[in-house]
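Contributing: when you submit paired examples, paste them exactly as shown. First protein:
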Amino acid sequence: MQERSSEDIIESLDKGLIRVAEISESGEWVVNQEAKQVILSYFQSHPSEKIQAGDLEYFDKIPLKKDFENKGIRVVSPATIRYGSYVAPGVILMPCFINIGAYVDSGTMVDTWATVGSCAQVGKNVHLSGGVGIGGVLEPLQAKPVIIEDGCFIGSRCILVEGVHIGKEAVLGANVVITGSSKIMDVSGLEPVEYVGYIPARSVVIPGAYTKKFPAGDYQVPCALIIGKRKESTDLKTSLNQALRDHNITF
């Protein structure tokens, strides 16, 4: 079989023919290390050039994605979507940023000033609210990107980085911050259950804190609290506020 060129691989990422990470037959998310390596080499092999978008001017190594009308994507100025990212038909992009290698599936809305980092994987019918920060990952090659599965609602100013995985239809309240080492505490039962780097499907999550001892004393450290499950009767398009009200939480 003829080896594919790096240009072919970037084009395939741009068209959604391949992904940086996808679910295997066993149900596990597997990283396409070759694709990540090609993205890294793309930065090294391409010089920065002037890019014109109407009155806006950029100077970058990666061109902007184009032809949104024919792709069936609504894009509100001045959203910036880099070539080599895939955005499916039916996606709505408010002024936001989507980096190379990212995958945004159909029916999703990326709201104002939200960022979808390099190689992040965002499923169908997801809502990324205003100011959400989805971290990117290129190195190390085997590292998983941030994964947000279908039907999730991510509240304003949430930050998800370091390969965290958000299960299907989860609801995250405003300002939830989850890193690869953050404590995630399910406090919906009689005893807490701890997770690291993973939010189970249909979880309703709010910011929290726990007490940690330091040499200088006891201090509060941020964590994420799972306070319950999204009700089966709740429509996937429900507002964040309604999902939180179901658990007697308001912000």
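Second protein:
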Amino acid sequence: MNQSSRNKRISTESFYKNLFGPLLQNDEGIDPELLTQAAINALGHASKHRNWPGISTLLATVNQDLNRSDKRLEQKIFGCDFKNPVGLAAGFDKNGVAAGIWDHFGFGFAEIGTVTWHAQPGNPRPRLFRLAAEKAALNRMGFNNNGAVVMRKTLKQQKLLQPGQRPVVLGINLGKSKITPIEQAPDDYASSIEILAPFADYAVINVSSPNTPGLRDLQSSKQLRRLIQRLRRLPSCPPLLVKIAPDLENIELDKLAKVAYEEGLAGLIAVNTSINRLGLEQRILSSSGLNLSEEAGGLSGAPLRPRAVEVIRRLHQATGSKLPIIGVGGIDSPEAAWERITAGASLIQVYTGWIFEGPMLVPRILEALLTQLENHGFSDISEAIGSEAPWTTIHSSDH
């Protein structure tokens, strides 16, 4: 990296830390949902008008600052060409308003949604809570989104290139509408996929959010098999993945992996947020005065890291390395990213860690992955997957 590029990145880091740092260091302050919405509104405007003078210049600067290209980071997985293994997790760009610009932020792929067939407001506010000291969040959003029909219109307006021709892979995360009974869930998901398939490089069946009553019942072998079979009958169904919960018992993980493999899923995403409080049961939320064990919602961020690694390792073994895994949950450092890949993840996603650490997290991870590949003598990222190669601080130049 040349010096001017390095200086530019340092200034980006300073900008983010100075603007958002004070807000992210405390539980109180600007409501995290309002902060997120303000950011996504600005990004949505930029995506819709990304060719305008000024906006295009700004995006070009961001692109130069945050992108790291190297053949060793590229992979072809379930028919998609990933320029690097780091993606944006679902939940941030719920309605796909910024789908046209995620490549500028250094990502190899981005997952929009969760979107449901019926538009829905989600759960009552407040429903997103910052746990600053733990670099974590508690959310009970409840799949608030504008619905699949509006998402299709939003994606059309952004004039995206066709799947396979874009600078980044685009996934669409799909959930069940709250008003739809469980027995009608397959048709509910199918309705969304039918109209959004032309925009998706891959689609995700989200059956693991803890914030829609009964949704996690779809993780059972019988229900999941019925759901997958319904969706794979669709004539234009993109590669399908399923996103699972960290709270499943290991034997349930094995059963789920078996169903996924037998039914021809393209991959697994592990993990969603946790209803387990992971040692933070007595942590008080200042906004309500209640401890976490009394609050509904899913926990995300750093506390999820140990269990998320365990789940990936288990799934990697259960599938005999035959199903690609996207690792997500508690990835807020290059070490956490490497740990997930060497445990068996082909790709990783960031969200909560990306918010706390800032956009610079992506290039930091990519640079570190290259260093680790060199240190271990791997020719490309695929050789590291499931290798259990330890994180090393030795640089290849020190050998």
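If you have annotations for the second protein, write them as plain sentences, like these:
The first helix runs from residue 3 to 24.
The mean pLDDT is 94.
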